[in-house]
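Entry:
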Amino acid sequence: MKTRPVLTIALILLTLGTYFAFSNAYLYIRQDRLLALAFSWHNVFPGIITYMFAHIGLKHLFGNMLLLLLVGAICEEKLRKKDYLAIYFASGAAGAVLFSAINPNVALAGASACIAGLMVPAMIINTRRFVLGMILVAVFSTTVMMPVLTVFSESLHQKTVKEYTVLKQEYENVTKEKQELQTIILELNKTEEKVREKLEKGEITEREYMIIIQNVSLQRNATLAKLAEKEQEEKKVSEGVNKTLELKENLEQGIEREKRMVTSVLVHALGSVVGATYLLLFRRDILYDAVFEWKNAAWRLKKRLARSS
């Protein structure tokens, strides 16, 4: 009877939830927020736990979650929940310490060390399913998932750059129109002062003065109304420019971060060693079952070869 991978799905949902909660509806987690979650010698705790649920970008995130779904589901066939979690977090913690020892100036994020810890138990529990699954994951990741995510992020970046350029030009136009209206109001105020001076000098009559002032007042009120509209429009466009700029910078920062992502074979190897060591110390029954199954498989293969010859 197959067990449902409840723990694996829970970890995947928690990791996805962490990413999208801290990315704040953007494609990538902002650099300062990522550093607050990542493990480094400046953020040992809670970084040694939170780094396992933080990821550099969507490719890093979905790549790890796809692998976790495979190995986690296999592990839950025979591992108890406490075994599963012990291997997962112990591998992650050991991997974090080793990574920071090798790269003291680089912050670590991602669940790959944790997943590496589960890979050895998964391979021992169900070798055929593990090998076949790894091949399928590798093929799907390299031919479908990674190219699609790359195209998606780059096309979104290009679209955002175009939107930002258009909005920035629109903002400059609105600002220019607002300044022109402000200049008109200043000119109307100057006209009003000149007319008042002419009245005081007796160059115009009281009636002429009132007519001119009334016209100036009407023009100023109309211009002030247009100015108020332009200020509202400017505020709205400014908000759009700022939001688009944030998205543009988020995409540029995230895409560049994924390109510069540092990985370590030693960290993954250590995670696998932790997983194997745990089985050796606490779950030898799984190792015994695996050896028995491998011997049976070898015996069946030998028998089949003997028949064919």
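The chain has a mean pLDDT of 94.
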